[in-house]
Amino acid sequence: ADGAAADALLAEAGYDPARPLVLLNPGGAFGPSKLWPMERYAQLAEHLIETHHAQIIINAAPNEQAAIAAVARAMTHAPLLDFSGRSNTLNALKSLVAACDLVVTNDTGTRHIAAALGTPLVTIFGSTDPAWTTLDCPREITIISDAPCAPCQKKACPIDPTDATFHQCMTSISVETVAAAAEKLLAGGAR
Question: Is the pLDDT at 135 greater than 80, yes or no?
Fold first, then answer.
């Protein structure tokens, strides 16, 4: 039933199965230190739309909707589905992840769902340590910050926000780095 509901949702949105379907998951319940900047998610979405004709789903948990709406606002192309402005359920998320060609996420539960379903994924790590949540997922590329303070395991960056090194564990990761990983997985073809 959840799969059929997800299929209906995609069809209603105008999903084209001939084009890649990419789910972006910019949130993270752990805290703000785990979040790659929202404007970078938007830039990544624009890049994937322009270079791969990707269809973008922006996922947001109910308590993240306001913050994640910044991704859609910063995009010039409208996402196929934007859950920062509508409700989503965990079961619907699972079905949508299963339909995707790629998931790009911070270190969150959505990462584990994608891995369990065999969906290729790019995971962005900054303040958290990937060694603590190692997955046996052959089609995952982890992007790990090389900031000297990472991983700190703090929920919020302890550096003064006026300091140039504030949140550097995530701000040091470029859109180009994440896009290259995404393109490598998209080039791998169907799951």
Answer: no
**In whole angstroms, what is the distance from residue 162 CA to residue 62 CA?**
30
Tell me what pLDDT residue 85 has.
85
Please provide the distance, in angstroms rounded to a whole number, between the alpha carbons at the two ends of the chain: 22
Say if residue 67's pLDDT is above 80: yes
Residues 110-131: tens digit of each pLDDT: 999 999 999 999 999 877 777 7
Mean of the per-residue pLDDT values of the chain: 88
Tell which residue, 149, 152, 155, 156, has the closest CA to residue 172. 149
Q: Which of 10, 39, 36, 33 is nearest to 22 (CA)?
A: 10
Give dist(CA 86, CA 101) in Å, integer: 22
CA–CA separation, 42 and 7 (whole Å): 25
Helix (H, G, I), strand (E, B) or coil at 34: helix
- Tell the burial category of 123 from Cβ atoms under 10 Å away from its Cβ (0-12, 13-18, 19+): buried
Annotate 147-159 with b (16+ C-beta within 10 A) or e (fewer): bebbbbebeebeb
